[in-house]
Structures are given as C-alpha cells and as structure tokens.
Amino acid sequence: MMNEHGKSDNPIVPRKLPNKGNMSAEAMEERGLTKGNSSEQNMLRTQGRVGVQTALGRIRKAVEKDRKQKLTALYHHVYNVDMLRESYYAIKRKAAPGVDNVTWSYYGENLEQNLRGLSNRLKRCAYRAQPTKRSYVPKADGGKRPIGVSVIEDKIVQRASVLVLNQIYELDFTGFSYGF
C-alpha cells in the first residue's frame, strides 16, 4: 500500500528463516529500517569519485582544446580531500610501511580526519615529505638493489599528483608510450 505523496512506504521485513548459515538477531525480529540513511557512509566515497572524475575530465578537456595552453592552477586539485581519498584507495593495501611504520589500514582507521589534516597542510604549504625508508634486496648476481619505501601520506600525495598530471601528459604520449 502506498502512503501519501512525500511519505515513505513501510519497510518489508522477512519473517522466514534465512537459508544456510548463522541466523542474525534481526532475521526474526520485526524491526523496521533504522532512522537516517544507512548508505550515507558509502555515498561520501561515491560522490567524491564523481567529483574527482569531473575535475580530471575538465583538465583533460582544457588540454585537448589547446595543447599549448599553460595550466597554472592545478595544485588545488592535488590537495582536494576527494582527490586524496581516491588516491588513498588506489594505493596497494599490503604495501610496506615507511619510516613511521603506519600501514594502509591503520591510516584508514581515521581516514577522513587524516585526509583533512593532510589537505590543510598541503593547502598551507606546510606539508613536508618524510624521509624514505631504505632497504636492500639481493640481486641474482650477488649484489644488492636499493629500495626506497615512502610513508603512506607521501604515497597519497604522489598518487594525487600522478592523477592530475596524467590528464595533461597522457594525450601527448598516446600512441608511442610503452611504459618505459
């Protein structure tokens, strides 16, 4: 039965036991939906991605329109919180931590607060990259190869910069760039 215009319908609650698996407490209770949007947390990531893709698309269109145009106002795209969030999710989750020993999952526990702080430091030009953790990996010939591991915030900023710069230089190198 439909409610009047502008009002929500009553939620449909299953009264049958779930098939295989553990039965959750809510499965047999006749509870309605919780107040508020249960998908609110996911909407933030989705909306951010749309905004980031739109901003990157505008950069790309400007370059397509006039390849000799000088783009002088790109930094605000790098410190945009949505761009930093997208960059965070693009980083390898199992990557080795840097000198601060902060892992991807640990940084993500307070992700929004961490990204806002990072964005503010970038905006004020107060952000300073941390030292790189140096490790040596043995080579087949008996030598050692130096490997530098950045801290998670440096990786986020680097990825955000790459996302912005890719929109500019991808058009120049399309057709003859083979990844080296």
Automatic annotation (TrEMBL):
InterPro entries in alphabetical order: DNA/RNA_pol_sf, GrpII_Intron_Splice-Mob/Def
Domain of life of the source: Bacteria
Segments for region (Disordered): 1-22
Family statement drawn from the similarity comment of this UniProt entry: Belongs to the bacterial reverse transcriptase family.
Protein name: Reverse transcriptase domain-containing protein
Organism encoding this protein: uncultured Desulfobacterium sp
